[in-house]
Design brief:
By secondary structure, this protein is of the alpha+beta class. It is 51% helix and 21% strand. The strands form 3 sheets. The chain has a 5-stranded antiparallel sheet. β1 and β2 form a beta hairpin. The longest helix has 42 residues. The N and C termini lie far apart (93 Å).
């Protein structure tokens, strides 16, 4: 029978020492994680502030902040594991052995990281640009390590993977200072076009947000069975595009209505914006 001072041939004092040693290491590992993550957040926040004060591109600010946070947190986790007594040489060897499998499993993630680098270097868009990518339209709010965050007009957040974004078609609506506004109206075949143009010109003359150059264009886009598709093209500052589009459509419609012009009931094919 085992003596009361030992169990399975191991002295109680040795067990107590082992428990104290293991417990201490666990507590220290937890402290390293908590304090390390806290310091990591402080450093990341400080880097973000410094980059913003130096007028660094907002996309680079968000990218570097998320990248720095990831690096520091990985270092903290490795330190905590080391505190638990895991030999780092063995740990690194294990990571190396699993590296290929992990790389294959997360090849999409790695391509997203490379895509983020390409976006920052080539700058097809930047933070606060309005873009369309992967079939989604919105304002770029963040460019992080792996993803780009868009806010849509109805305040939805669309998260796009950087890899496909960098390798796909991107429409940047805010890259140029001016943007064209196209308005279409279905008119009856017997409409006096010169009279309509005169009415539209009076509306354009009252709209101060329209640029004089390029010169506004009013003309027939196409003729369909029973109707004429009239197009009005003007240029305005990019940031005013939406408000000018809706305002101009309403103003022209009201001016036509005030002068007894009837719009056609026949549907016409509105072309895609050119």
């Amino acid at each position: 029978m085992a003596k009361q001072s030992e169990i399975f041939g191991i002295q109680y004092s040795e067990i107590q020492n082992l428990l104290v040693h293991v417990g201490t290491n666990i507590v220290l590992a937890i402290v390293i994680l908590v304090v390390g993550f806290w310091i990591s957040n402080l450093i990341t926040g400080a880097i973000r502030k410094v980059l913003k004060k130096s007028n660094t591109d907002e996309g680079l600010v968000t990218f570097m902040s998320s990248f720095t946070s990831l690096v520091f947190k990985v270092m903290v986790v490795v330190s905590a594991i080391s505190q638990l007594g895991v030999e780092m040489t063995s740990f690194v060897a294990l990571l190396g052995a699993a590296g290929l499998a992990i790389g294959l499993a997360f090849s999409g993630t790695l391509s997203n990281f490379a895509g983020g680098i390409m976006i920052l270097v080539l700058k097809p868009f930047k933070v606060n640009d309005k873009i369309m990518a992967l079939g989604e339209r919105g304002v770029v709010k963040e460019i992080q390590i792996f993803n780009t965050y868009l806010h849509t007009e109805d305040e939805k957040v669309v998260i796009l993977p950087n890899g496909p974004v960098a390798n796909g078609n991107i429409i940047n609506f805010t890259r140029q200072p001016l943007r064209r506004v196209d308005c279409y109206f279905n008119l009856n075949l017997n409409t006096d076009l010169e009279f309509i143009k005169t009415l539209v010109k009076t509306v354009l003359a009252d709209e101060k947000r329209i640029d004089a150059k390029p010169v506004p264009f009013i003309g027939v886009e196409s003729v369909h069975a029973g109707c004429i598709l009239l197009v009005v093209r003007v240029w305005t500052k990019t940031e005013q595009h939406s408000e000018v589009f809706y305002s101009l459509n309403e103003s022209i419609f009201n001016r036509l209505k005030e002068n007894g012009v009837q719009l056609s009931d026949n549907p016409a094919i509105i072309p895609v914006s050119k």
